[in-house]
Design a protein that fits this description.
The chain has four helices and eight strands, in the order ββββαββαβαβα. The strands form two sheets. It has a six-stranded mixed sheet with strand order 1-2-3-5-7-8, sandwiched between helices. Strands 4-6 form a two-stranded parallel sheet. By secondary structure, the chain is of the alpha/beta class.
Amino acid sequence: MKPKTFDGWSIEPLRPHVLRIRWVGPYTNATSAGVSAYVEEYRAELGGDAGIWVVIEIAEDASLEKSARKTLLEAGKKQPFRGTAFIGGPKRLRVVAELIANAVSLIVKNASPVKFVDNEEEALAWLEEQMKLEHGQ
C-alpha cells in the first residue's frame, strides 16, 4: 500500500502488519477519520481481520485537540492495533497519551499494549516481542 499524507501527518507500511504514523501538528477529528480509513484499507489488503501493530512518531509540535480526545478514546476501544509503540513527542502529550491508553485498558477487555520508546529500533524490537507473545512463541 502506498504511503499517504494528510494535514501534515503521514502513514505508511513499515513492514508487513506494521504501520508507521508520523504525528505532526494537531490531532483532529479529520485526522482520526483519515487514519481510520487508511488502516481499514490496509487491513482489507491484508485479508480483513489481520493484526496490525503501529509505530507512532510524535513530533515536538504535536497536539491533541480537546474535541478529538473522545474520538481518540473511541478509536482505542475499537482496537484496530494489536500494539502501539510511541516515539518522541512533548512531555505533556505523552502524559495525555498514557492517560488515554490507561483509560482504554480499563474499559476494553484485552486492550492492546502501549509502550513509549526512544527510537524506531526499540519500537520494532518491542513490537516483535508483542507479536511473538500473541502467537504463543
